[in-house]
Amino acid sequence: MSSRQDDAMAALRDWSKPGRRADLIAAAWQAGETNVSALAEAARISRPTVYADLRSRGIDPDHRPKGNSVITNLSPLDIEGFTGVAERLDAEFDAALRRWAAEHPTASKEEGQAEGMRLVGLMDTTYRYADVRDLLAREQVARAERDRLLHLVELRWEALSTASAWLAAHHAYVLAVDEARFAIDMWRERAEAALSRPFFCSSPRDEAAYRQIQEAGHPALEQALADLDRTPAQTAEQLRATLDQAHERRMELASQTLRHTQATQ
């Protein structure tokens, strides 16, 4: 966390002046803290209130400052015939080398060897790129689903206060909590998988292959890799703890409502 982000979150935790909370939440968001649960915990308010405060300051909470790293909706790879699919590597390499040989019938042995090395670099880089890109995409999808379901929990709870069919609405809330727990665990697994696959270029040949991939219209990976949560297990534990603590308290409140309902029947 940057010093600017630290300062913004510290100020948010100490807010007291009426009307200043939304300004501090917006400042923390703009400083890089886009975890709504963390903002809610720091300000000691609910997640829906965080969303309302952000929107009151002209910030769309569904548009993250790091949104330029989104790499979902990916198109298939085809870089000189290399698709990045492990089972096809040997066949694709042989086909690429045959094409080059047919196009350069008078090439020397040395030129053929150089081309073979270039194709090896392109094949390897494309394969590693595809592997990392797909893992990053899965993490981003899981992260978005995690945040959506955590928000849905708050919406379901808020809906209970005006629900005409209270038991049905309460059941919907309980289901939302269960789905959010599952989503947190799913995100953690995918984040850990993404962290286990670093992407790097170790030679000028690799760098040239990576440029070729991007020139073909495929996204760069650097920002998405930088955006990864480096402690997914810790973050997941914190999210689960916050969710479970709130749920336990809400169940106590809901039981009072249920007892009153049963007493009046």
Question: Would you give an account of this structure?
Answer:
With 265 residues, the chain is an all-alpha fold. The protein contains ten helices and no strands. The longest helix has 52 residues, at 109-160. The chain is elongated and about 90 Å long. The N and C termini lie far apart (54 Å).
| Helical content class | over 70%
How many separate helices? 10
Q: What profile does the largest beta sheet have? A: none
- Beta-strand content bin: under 5%
Low-confidence segments:
none
Assembly state (oligomeric): single chain
H/E element string?
HHHHHHHHHH
Q: Which overall shape is indicated by the principal axes computed on the Cα atoms?
A: elongated
Task: Fill in the keyword field for this structure.
10 helices; single chain; 265 residues; elongated; mainly alpha; 71% helix
Brief account:
The protein has 265 residues and is mainly alpha-helical.
Task: Please describe the topology of this protein.
Blueprint: H1 3-13, H2 20-30, H3 36-43, H4 47-56, H5 89-103, H6 109-160, H7 166-195, H8 204-215, H9 222-227, H10 232-263
Helix pairs in contact: 1-2, 1-3, 2-4, 3-4, 5-6, 6-7, 6-8, 7-10
